[in-house]
Amino acid sequence: MKPICLISFLLLCISANAQMECMLGVGGKDNETITKVFELTEEQQENLKNWSAELKVRNDLLREKAQYLMKKNEESSPEVLVTVSVEYQVILDSMKQNIRMMDKRLLGTFSETQYERYSKLCNQMTMRPIYVNKSVDEN
């Protein structure tokens, strides 16, 4: 019985440490909400608009690549489909990285007050805020 309890406890600790990252969602449907909640300046709003457009272009290209991959392999054998699924996951991961990159760019423009608000909201949702090193300017 003790090994079962120990394993359960370890799994609980691991899942507690594996918090999801708190994404803003730049480029999604919530740009207006982001603007209102964080009271973005005119410059930040312009950046948000531009980065949203950039994200759309980047992810549209990846989406087309994924669609081509699926269409090309729709009649493939199970062995080939396993390989295709790995390639498809790489494309999805790239899209997620693009979203995170744009969120991080916007967070890098946040004032101390805006970033504190973001951190508090993340903590309320038990999500991990994206850390932004203010000494490095990606723009």
Labels describing this entry:
139 residues, mainly alpha, two-stranded parallel ribbon, 2 strands, 3% strand
Short description:
It contains five helices and two strands; from the N terminus they run αβααααβ.
Describe the structure.
It is built from five helices and two strands, in the order αβααααβ. It is an all-alpha fold and about 140 residues long. A two-stranded parallel ribbon has the order 1-2. The longest helix has about 30 residues, at about 80-110. The radius of gyration is 20 Å and the shape is elongated.
Q: In terms of topology, how is this protein built?
A:
Elements: H1 2-17, E1 21-22, H2 31-37, H3 42-72, H4 78-109, H5 112-124, E2 128-129
Parallel strand pairs: 1-2
Helix pairs in contact: 3-4
Global geometry: elongated
Mean pLDDT: 85
Helix vs. strand class: mainly alpha
Low-confidence residue ranges = 5-17
Largest sheet: 2 strands, parallel
Strand adjacency order, main sheet: 1-2
Count up the helices: 5
The ordered string of helix (H) and strand (E) elements is HEHHHHE
Alpha carbon gap, first and last residue? 56 Å
Strand content: under 5%
Q: What radius of gyration results from the CA coordinates?
A: 20 Å
Helix fraction by DSSP (H/I, runs of at least 4): over 70%
Total number of beta strands: 2
